[in-house]
Design a protein that fits this description.
By secondary structure, the chain is mainly α. Helices cover about 40% and strands about 10% of the residues.
Length: about 600
């Protein structure tokens, strides 16, 4: 589903061109229409601001619920299974079948289109009728946007052709060799630093407007934190196992100082003192995603205007069919895997694999007394969820005997149960970020989509600090803050040890494993896991084998039986750490070199 704001802006700026062409056909021979149009736009401050707003309208380019035809990127790793369509690119990745000929090209083409718009702005900035202070602010936004879109390119492809501020014609091939990974990191960092020095500390704009969610110093520092964390991680911080002679996807050497740089970048965000973990009303973790932007945890949001279909998109795609919206009554996104469910600890903070955790094993009580983030993230059988006209009622995701009842919600397994048409394949539905107040109502409520939040920064800092220093007191403080906000039990034994399930005196290796799992559950469905398992180089382990779901069968007497089922086998090949450059781009630009290991299959 396209962003409504984007469509309106495109229409707004297309209209003058249409009118001009209709009245002045003979003038087309006297000069470049695009040049004339650009001068017209940038000589008008409101139209220029519209260009900036337009570019902000695509911030969620990579993390968009409608990407891949609603089949989420989570389906390409060990988070979720797609609802339908084996031809979508996440499933192609999961099967290990990605190649240049079938590669998704949305990121590559969108990047150069967006950068072209930024560069046109920069080329015309001297004619924009605003004060020098306003112009510098607008340029800071433009350079932040270029850095943001450049980082998206980097994580997908590794090094890519940098074109600086050059403006290419719309149909002109960009036949430029790829830059190295190091050159791209430096370029993005330089653009972020330039913007950081000129953007305000706070965004004073209020209300439901696009300006409210534009970048600030904290935003640019947070993106830098994410950039340098990726740069310090094993995938890039080495020689790519000797398979990167051009250094397109790695630095070519390992340097521990990159972890210090990542730590300092995250610490810079923390030290601003502007952000904190949301603890407004319980359940904290669920309500974090219900905030409208005035939230101390939000650092970068995609603005989604009120009264647009996008406001119900998550509910439309992810809810069980019985929790319908007015747009559709079948789930059509991705279904959480058992592997993700098992990653959530007990409410005492201990892993379900820990013999002292009190986990009862697979059965009637397996979801009881779990980390509250599980309930806030995933619809599981028996979870209490709003049912229109009836209040909170259990979600019924079982197969087998459905009770005879005239009460619709009591027979909802006929719609929501595993194996039903349009229902889950795994025994679970996504719940994270969904709103109960739109179910069945057709309401279109204003909401932001969170792209960066403070919990990520704390986890970035913890990971980088552990890699550079080993376990420190700071790390324990940050991890326990995240666990406390999740409403994990503080101290079950009363001995003031292992608070919130964060074990005292962990080794480096134990801390690394703990932090990685904490990222997995805290940041689930936020477009992190797919990239994390790659940058850590654990994808050959966790994305290379069978993934599972939970089949729950109800007997006539009302009892239940449980069985872990195989959903599909994932395949991870060595080249799959990065995406193949689309063949269409390789054909247009002979100077490009493909990522190692990919072969076109016509």
């Amino acid at each position: 589903m396209k962003n409504i704001l984007l469509n309106k802006l495109m229409l707004l700026f297309a209209l003058p061109v249409v009118l001009f062409m209709a009245c002045n056909d003979e003038f087309l021979d006297q000069g470049s229409l695009s040049d004339i149009y650009e001068k017209d736009v940038y000589a008008d401050s409101l139209k220029t601001l519209g260009v900036i707003n337009n570019l902000y309208g695509g911030l969620n380019l990579s993390f968009n619920p409608s990407r891949f035809g609603n089949q989420c990127l989570e389906a390409a790793c060990d988070e979720a299974e797609p609802s339908t369509d084996e031809a979508k690119f996440p499933v192609i990745i999961a099967k290990g079948a990605a190649n240049p000929s079938n590669a998704d090209k949305g990121i590559w083409t969108s990047y150069y289109r967006n950068v072209r718009q930024v560069n046109i702005f920069l080329a015309n900035k001297d004619i924009i009728p605003v004060t020098s202070q306003t112009l510098e602010l607008w340029e800071a936004h433009a350079r932040f946007l270029k850095a943001w879109y450049s980082f998206i390119m980097l994580k997908h492809y590794g090094g890519f052709p940098l074109i600086g501020d050059k403006v290419y014609a719309e149909d002109e091939a960009i036949d430029v060799p790829r830059n190295t990974y190091a050159e791209c990191v430096k370029y993005i960092q330089d653009e972020l630093d330039w913007a950081t020095s000129r953007l305000p500390l706070n965004n004073s704009v209020t209300g439901e407007t696009a300006d409210r969610f534009k970048a600030t110093k904290g935003t640019t520092l947070a993106v830098k934190s994410r950039l340098l964390l990726y740069a310090a991680s094993p995938l890039a911080n080495g020689d790519y196992d000797g398979n990167d002679p051009d250094h397109y996807v790695s630095f070519g050497n390992s340097d521990k100082k990159r972890w210090e740089d990542a730590y300092l970048a995250a610490k810079a965000v923390i030290d601003l003192g502007l952000y904190s973990l949301y603890q407004g009303s319980s359940p904290f973790f669920y309500n974090l995603f219900q905030q409208n932007g005035d939230c101390s945890e939000h650092i970068l949001n995609q603005w989604i205007p009120q009264n647009t279909n996008n406001n119900m998109y998550y509910e439309t795609l992810a809810n069980p069919p019985s929790r319908w919206t007015r747009y559709q009554s079948t789930s059509s996104s991705c279904f959480p895997l058992q592997e993700l469910v098992d990653a959530f600890p007990m409410k005492n903070g201990l892993s379900i694999d820990d013999p002292t955790s009190d986990y009862p094993g697979i059965g009637d009580n397996m979801y009881n007394n779990r980390d509250p983030r599980l309930t806030a993230s995933i619809h599981y059988n028996g979870a209490l969820r709003y049912y229109i006209g009836s209040g909170d009622k259990p979600v019924r995701i079982y197969t087998g005997a459905i009770p005879a009842s005239s009460v619709a919600e009591e027979t909802s397994a006929s719609r929501d149960g595993i194996y039903q048409a349009g229902a889950t394949k795994t025994g679970y539905y996504r719940y994270k970020g969904l709103r109960n107040d739109v179910i069945g109502s057709g309401a279109e409520l204003y909401r932001p989509q969170i792209l960066i939040r403070y919990a990520e920064i704390l986890l970035n800092a913890a990971e980088a600090a552990n890699e550079y220093y080993g376990p420190t007191d700071e790390i324990y403080t940050w991890l326990r803050a995240v666990r406390q906000r999740a409403e994990i039990t503080r101290d079950e034994d009363g001995d003031e040890k292992n608070l919130y399930g964060v074990k005292d005196n962990m080794t480096y290796e134990e801390m690394k494993i703990f932090i990685r799992n904490e990222r997995r559950i805290e940041l689930a469905f936020e477009e992190h896991r797919f990239w994390d398992v790659r940058r850590w180089k654990i994808a050959p382990i966790v994305s290379n084998g069978e993934v599972h779901g939970m089949e729950i069968t109800r007997a006539v007497d009302g009892s239940f039986s449980y069985r872990v089922i195989t959903i599909r086998k994932h395949v991870f090949n060595p080249e799959m750490y990065y995406w193949p450059i689309p063949m269409s781009e390789m054909t247009k630009s002979p100077a490009l070199k493909q990522n190692q290991g990919y072969v076109s299959k016509e």
